[in-house]
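Continuing from the previous page of notes. For each protein in this section, the sequence appears first, followed by its structure tokens. Read the first protein now.
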Amino acid sequence: MIVVDTHIIIWEALAPQKLSVAATQAWAQAAGQGEIFVSDISLWEIAMLMHKERLQVNTDCQSFINLLIQANNLHIQPITPQIAALSVQLTNEINQDPADRLIAATALSQKMPLITADRNLQAAVTIHTIW
């Protein structure tokens, strides 16, 4: 079981060559078992990227997000009270970006590794990351 950062979902779908070997292997193993988890804040981040035209695809936002979820059998993890509390308790080694904090807290609360290329999250000693 793994949690994936927002950019990993996008890269896996649109630019898989950007993924590291370890990330690709972890994704494939978790996908084979139907155990890829995504913080629901990632859906919002994808929508914002599309709205700002920083992510361009040949379909509307809702259809693209639904396609990502269905094609990869993603499990959407809602922000729970535990995740919200963990996100604000994380040390300053994690930046103040609410999405990064919620994604990290999701991985911590579920006791799952986080696939991310984000060096800030990789440097956090409290989070088990794969890259």
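Done with the first. The second protein uses the same format. Note its length before scrolling.
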Amino acid sequence: MKNFPNINENQYVIVMADGKTGNILNINKEWSLDNNHSIFSIFNSIDEALNFIGKDQTDNDWVEYIIYDKNQSVVKYIEAIKWS
């Protein structure tokens, strides 16, 4: 994945996408059409990442979340509530 952040063993990265279209979102939840905004949110533990998603889904039921580890492997995919 292009520009994937360098994180340590215990950290995780969340990438968000529009659950309807599959378009990747930047951290402002806008379609990522260029490289001017980051698409990566970094968390210090899997629990911290999951807590963020739990809170964020309340207001953003159309967003899907992909959690990656330091090796860029998908740890967990969480479907958008609106389309699940």
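What the second structure shows: The beta strands are 12-18, 24-25, 41-43, 63-68, 74-78. The chain has a mean pLDDT of 94. We return to this in next week's lecture.
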